[in-house]
Amino acid sequence: MTAILIGPRKSGRSLLARIFAAKSGGTIIDDAERVPETQLFHAWNRAQEEHRPLLIVADAAPPEWKVKLPDLRSRLAASPIAAIGAPDDEPHAAVAGASVRAAEPRCAARSGRLARHPN
């Protein structure tokens, strides 16, 4: 099966695609709108023949790519599309806060050791 993941750059879409590939044994094509159409076409066909998942990652949905190959255009039109939005400040703040909280015990332990050091 082939699916398409769209979203803005820096949204985490490539990270999600790498996780997908690692867990499924599938293949990803990132920045697909910049990949030659024949390469996409052959990758799509190969994924179907080998019964391996293919995740195509792009900024926008294929209709915006102006695909010239009719067979590729029809295959992409038949593929499910998932969209990821741009991250907002709330998730960034949560991740940053969690990172700081996770680092606090290590920092406190290190500073305690440094304070007790004889030199």
Please provide a written account of the structure.
The protein is α/β, with parallel strands linked by helices. The protein has four helices and four strands; from the N terminus they run E-H-E-H-E-H-E-H. It has a four-stranded parallel sheet, sandwiched between helices. The protein is elongated, with a radius of gyration of 21 Å. It starts with a strand and ends with a helix. The model is unreliable at 114-119 (pLDDT under 50).
What is the overall shape?
elongated
Q: Over the alpha carbons, how many angstroms does the gyration radius reach?
A: 21 Å
The helix-and-strand class reads alpha/beta
- The overall average pLDDT, rounded, is 82
Question: Helical element count?
Answer: 4
Order of helices and strands: EHEHEHEH
Provide the low-confidence segments as ranges: 114-119
Approximate helicity band? 40-55%
Question: What's the gist of this structure?
Answer:
With 119 residues, this protein is of the alpha/beta class.
Topology:
Elements lengths: L1 E5 L6 H12 L2 E3 L7 H14 L3 E5 L11 H9 L2 E3 L5 H28 L3
Parallel strand pairs: 1-3, 1-4, 2-3
Which structural traits does this protein have?
119 residues; alpha/beta; 4-stranded parallel β-sheet; 4 helices; 53% helix; 13% strand
